[in-house]
Amino acid sequence: MQELQQGELIGEKYKVKKLLSQGSFGKVYLGRNIENGMKVAIKVEKQEMSNCLSLEREVEILKKLRGIPQVPELLWHGKHNEFQVMITKMLGFDLIYFLKKNKKFSIECIFNIAQQMIEILENIHKKNIIHRDLKPENILAKSHSDQIYLIDFGISKSSVKSKKQNKAKIPFIGTSRYASVTAHRGLEQARRDDLESLGYVLIYLFKQKLPWSNYEKFENDRIERIGQLKFEMKPQDICEGCPQQILNYMTQVAGLNHQQIPNYQKLKLIFQLKINHKQHIIFDWSNNQFINSKTIQDNKTNNQQKYESVQHIKLSVEKTSSRHLHTITFHVDSNASSCFNSQQSCSMQNSFGSHQSVQVDFLNSESSVQSQKKENKLSTFDAFILNDDIMPIKDQLQLMELENQDLEIKHNLLHYRSVYYNFKNPFTGILSLKIN
User: Fold this and answer.
1) Catalytic residue from among 94, 133, 193, 333
2) Which stretches make up the Protein kinase domain (predicted)?
């Protein structure tokens, strides 16, 4: 197959950037609209597959599905250098990419995928389109989006409108890992077959394997072996180790007949989380985080532990300093640092009520001035709670650890050098001025 070259212009405004992927039907390139900078996906059909009319079929189906928000928007199609080209909006990365990046998906994330996919299938089924190739690689998402997209309608077709299923055997169509039993038997697929394939996708996303995964290594009779196992296994066995909701879903789908219109709303409700358990459902790859009552409680516990840690350091410093030198009290703020300037020294000198108490604050934050203004309104613990909205817990813990180490170093330098050995004591001059 002739490849597109980087910088090549298609349709007078779509520039080729690089190759993204390739499959049995063709290749997909990343491109850009030179007029508005929008990223696009450029799909090129292999010349040897042109007789299958796969790309032409996909173009016609996308025209029928125009207006459905979670399927690709067709931007341009036609011939370029003697082969068929189709250009759509760039919709992100597939679920396998995010699964490898996140190691695994949360139940909430998988349930949200299920609900959105059922809605997408309902919308395309209303247009009498059966996808016939549902798999994680054909479900895309963006890192900052709360929507998923269904792509690759190259082997999709209009649903059969006859009341009886055609018994004539047809070649296997789909991906063996996720294809329905009907597809393995060589029969025409209907709405229920897309829903069955979705069930296998959900199981794979949860367990990262399927009961027939070991059969995929067989080359000659892989499709037959996997199809036979799917036919013989009960939903309980296929869904072993999965949440009850997935079993309920597969059981309902298995009860549908060939031409029955599924109750999509009922299927979506299976994966609906309880209202009192959540504030909202999002994807694991989103910047936001799933929030529930347990998460909030865990955050409060972590904040309390950090608060107690700071209080412990302050108390330890005060006790140690008062034990060895009664005229000096070290007060270490939670935002302590390793230096103070002459203006801060002057402010400390002016704050003395008597020469028996010296307060030392180590300031290292632009927010310290604001925090001092709010100290009469907010407790230290409340301040931690507010800061959590800005900085993630992981980063706060790392910062706290560094600050604790910094406090320990400063305490050793100030205490042991100034008090035990009494050379170059930074407070000697201040004390003498105050006494005089």
Assistant:
1) 133
2) 14-283
